[in-house]
Amino acid sequence: MSGEILSQSEIDALLSALSTGEMNADDIKKEQETKKVKVYDFKRALRFSKDQIRSLTRIHENFARLLTTYFSAQLRTYVQITVASADQIPFEEFIRSVPKMTILNSFDVPPLDGRILMEINPNIAYSMLDLVMGGKGTSVNKVDNLTEIEQRIMSNLFESAFEHLTEAWGNIAEINPVLADFEVNPQFLQMVSPNETVVVISMNTTVGEISGMINLCIPHVVLEPIIPNLSVHYWMQNNNKEKEPIEAENIEKRIKHAPIPLAVELGNAEISIEDFLSIQMGDVIQLDKKIDEPVIVKLEGIPKYYAQVGKSSKKMAIQILNEVKGGDDDE
């Protein structure tokens, strides 16, 4: 009852029943405290947690970005691919959801068991095929009578695209995708049993003016050995371990090559404006330091070292003697 909205007449009837003793408030409380039984469909077993599904979504969002870059370069046209949803459903339900005639690429992913299925909407597939063949990207759905040449071109295109899954999955598993089968009728697929739980990653795809879906079907048997790697803690920890050394190394390289202004202060002198205005070539200005006294070396205007003046290979040079203590304490 807590989830229902009662009308005024229902509220009045309830209050009347309580006042006349037909209903007991304690009985209502007990009824609310009683555990509610939920219907569980064993054919639709949920074998992945929400946390694991979120991790798979993030991983394949990266895969979608890689595919966008790859197809844009190969087709030389506007391509946009984004993840629309990630769901776990029985394999039979997935097969019923795809068109009767479509483009199906089945991939082995050693060292993991099982296969991953990539389903491409025929409109998208034929638009890509037309662009590869030098056309404008128009789509004519004739998937039921593909020629061997068209099938081969499509297979090569999507096989190269699927190689980017290796990079996308780099944080959870090292895989080497290999195209195992090309099919157009989903009824002929014998990947897993109909009741096997699969994760379906649906990606919205736009190629020029043509839009459609690309679906990835990943059976539970493929993900089972690496399910612990799908936790957010593992994924973020592993991601940081790989990036931190690389980022630190890049920062170190850039810092080493950063230019720093260095100046040597030989000494100071005070003269009048009249003397300054009358300075001529050959005049000598006496400084407040003796020739054998150390000079100050400044970095970015900050005193950093003591040094002595000399020559090296007939060029003016300085030799560092000591560090200025407290020279940058205020920075």
Automatic annotation (TrEMBL):
Subcellular location: Bacterial flagellum basal body; Cell membrane
Membrane topology: Peripheral membrane protein
Keywords: Bacterial flagellum, Cell membrane, Cell projection, Chemotaxis, Cilium, Flagellar rotation, Flagellum, Membrane
Any Gene Ontology biological process: bacterial-type flagellum-dependent swarming motility
Membrane-crossing segments per the record: none
Chain ranges of the Flagellar motor switch protein FliN-like C-terminal domain: 254-323
Top-level taxon in the UniProt lineage: Bacteria
Regions annotated as coiled coil: none
Family annotation (Pfam families): FliM (PF02154), FliMN_C (PF01052)
GO cellular component, as recorded: bacterial-type flagellum basal body; plasma membrane
GO molecular function: cytoskeletal motor activity
Family stated for the protein in its record: Belongs to the FliM family.
Protein name: Flagellar motor switch protein FliM
Organism: Heyndrickxia oleronia
Gene name tied to this protein: fliM
